[in-house]
Amino acid sequence: MVNDFAQKSQSSVSDYNLSQASQSSTITRNVSSRVPSLNLPVPRLIVYRFVRVTNILDNPPNFSWLSCEGVSNYIVKLVDSKGIVWRDKVPANKEQTVNYDSETFLEPGKDYIFTVEIDRQTSYVDTQVRQEVNIAEDVKKCIQKIERTGLPKQFKASLMAQLDGLLIARDETLDIIHKAVRQGSNSEIICFLNNFLNQGSVFELLANADSCDDILDALGDFATQLAAANRTLGEYLQLSGVQISMAQSLVSKGADLASFTQNLEGAFQLGQFSSSNSLGLCDPSCKSDLAKICIKSKCSGCTFCGGSE
After folding, report:
1. Residue 97 burial by CB count (10 A; 0-12/13-18/19+): exposed, middle or buried?
2. Closest C-alpha to 229, from 182, 199, 256, 196
3. Residue 270 DSSP one-character state
4. Nearest to 53 by CA among 108, 102, 105
5. Residue 172's closest CA among 92, 94, 257?
6. Residues in the chain, pLDDT under 50
7. Angle CA(273)–CA(277)–CA(279) in degrees, nearest 5?
8. Which of 10, 106, 168, 306 is 20 to 30 Å apart from 52, CA to CA?
9. What is the pLDDT of residue 95?
10. Nearest Cα to 184, choosing from 245, 122, 249, 125?
11. b/e string for 170-209 if b means 16 or more Cβ within 10 A?
12. Which of 27, 24, 18, 81 has the alpha carbon at shortest distance from 237?
């Protein structure tokens, strides 16, 4: 998967090889043959995730997200089963963090949906996609860091599987989008999604992770971006009347990805990963500057060697 991903990330949109995605060939057929340029009022989401307040210390919560290129403002919302609980507008020139400040108290144990969408004034039509050639390299760096952690093998394998699953999900969504682009679609939604999923900020986050918690957080950000893309594309296809069954599948897939962070935290018991699980492995004093290996006689409990001898 990583090799396929590296090849795909380095190719241009016009040369994208759909034969590599036979698993998605059924759902990508005739995506935009009937509506090549519809512009429907579909929110252009960049974050879509389920939120549950479990700790009183986290209530009211704060939310953060990765920036999106070319955006003037972000619209953030918190929704429950009855509708919008809270809405705010955040200028893009500020830090992508916002504190929940509604008078409505969030109920512990209750599920909410947090979304971030870009403002309607931002347009990606006729904007050339900047292919992020460093994405494949960033993925390799993340894999190397996972392999070097002091985690048990089963946890490493699980992290690898989660990353691989997200990469596959990204490719499947891009296959649909690229199919539409090849068939001449220049709708705002298609152009936005094509640009959005080719931005590399989340991959830079994965490559620069300094701890196990950082990797889990970055995987969560990756999943919420994919959830947003699937939700947006699914709603677009539903409103356009094209490929209704595929549209429903995309919306459902978006919901699954939106709960990724909660499921991952539960599976990995996020709280057990302390700062000692650093991806730097040994303290600098434990290492030979030349060989870059741990000198156990100087080590006092790093995750690499498990302690001094």
Report:
1. exposed
2. 196
3. G
4. 108
5. 257
6. 2-37, 270-309
7. 130
8. 168
9. 79
10. 125
11. bbbbbbbbbbbbeeebbbbbbbbbbbbbbbbebbbbbbeb
12. 27
Strands 62-64 and 97-99: antiparallel
Take residue 58 and report the two structure tokens written for it: 């986290």
Tell me the backbone φ, ψ of residue 253, rounded to 5 degrees. -65, -40
Residues 6+ apart with CB under 8 A from 164: 1, 2
Beta strand 111-118 with 45-52: parallel, antiparallel or unpaired? antiparallel
Q: Which of 263, 245, 223 is nearest to 29 (CA)?
A: 245
With contact defined as beta carbons under 8 Å apart, do 290 and 274 qualify? Answer: no
Tens digits of per-residue pLDDT, 251-262? 999 999 999 987
- Residues 6 or more apart whose Cβ sits within 8 Å of residue 152: none
Query: In angstroms, rounded to a whole number, what is the distance separating the alpha carbons of residues 202 and 222?
Result: 6
Question: Measuring CA to CA, which residue among 113, 120, 143 is closest to residue 50?
Answer: 113
Provide the token pair at 192.
């936005």
Cβ proximity of 168 and 230 under 8 Å: no
In the structure encoding, which two tokens stand for residue 187, read together?
Answer: 């709708």
Whose CA is closest to 265, among 52, 33, 17, 35? 52
CA max distance for the chain = 70
Strands 73-80 and 83-91: antiparallel
Going by C-alpha positions, the residue among 172, 273, 259, 271 that lies closest to residue 223 is 259
62 DSSP β-pair partners: 99
Instruction: Give me 106's structure tokens.
Output: 């969030």
* Sequence letter at residue 122: T
Tens-place pLDDT, residues 125-177: 877 666 555 888 999 999 999 998 888 888 889 899 999 999 999 999 999 99
